[in-house]
Amino acid sequence: MNDTEWITQLLQTENSEIIGMEISRIDNPVLLHNIALNYNWDDGFKLLNLIINNGNCELGTALMLFYNADGYLLLNENSKNNITGQKEWLAFINTLFNKLLNNKFCSKKISYQPGLSKVQKYKLKKANPNIPEMFFEGVKTKN
């Protein structure tokens, strides 16, 4: 079975114990990234939490998940006081944001650029000058 088939099978598995066991065993950051890339966000945050808590999850994958989870709202000082949503989403995005701020992810193989416009970057930097540059520029790896 190739990686694509394995990812498809894993993402269709309904047994959370099996999913947890498989995610915890993954030592390949590219495989973790591809799982995150193909994840159905309607399935909740349990698998995503497993990914970001896997020691092989790289900064590029974490930033991708941050932006795919609408983390932009946390970066915008004007939106912070108005953030409402599911408790599960708030817990996930806050955990991920704090792990990013505290450099809990390594950067070796996975690149990610958030694709923010110059205007978006300017507004975010103006609203909150303490946001680390990686949130604007992403991460580029050396291949």
Description:
The protein is globular, with a radius of gyration of 16 Å. 22% of the residues are buried. The two termini are 27 Å apart. The longest helix is centred in the middle third of the chain and has 15 residues, at 87-101. It is built from ten helices and no strands. The protein has helices at 3-12, 16-25, 29-37, 46-52, 59-68, 72-75, 77-80, 87-101, 118-127, 134-137. The chain has 143 residues and is mainly alpha-helical. Helices cover 58% and strands 0% of the residues.
Task: Describe the protein's topology.
Layout: H1 3-12, H2 16-25, H3 29-37, H4 46-52, H5 59-68, H6 72-75, H7 77-80, H8 87-101, H9 118-127, H10 134-137
Helix pairs in contact: 2-4, 3-5, 5-8
Task: List the keywords.
10 helices, mainly alpha, 143 residues, 58% helix, globular
Describe the oligomeric state of these chains in a short phrase: single chain
Class computed from helices, strands and strand pairing? mainly alpha
Task: For the record, give the distance between the C-alpha atoms at the N and C termini, rounded to a whole number.
Answer: 27 Å
The secondary-structure element order is HHHHHHHHHH
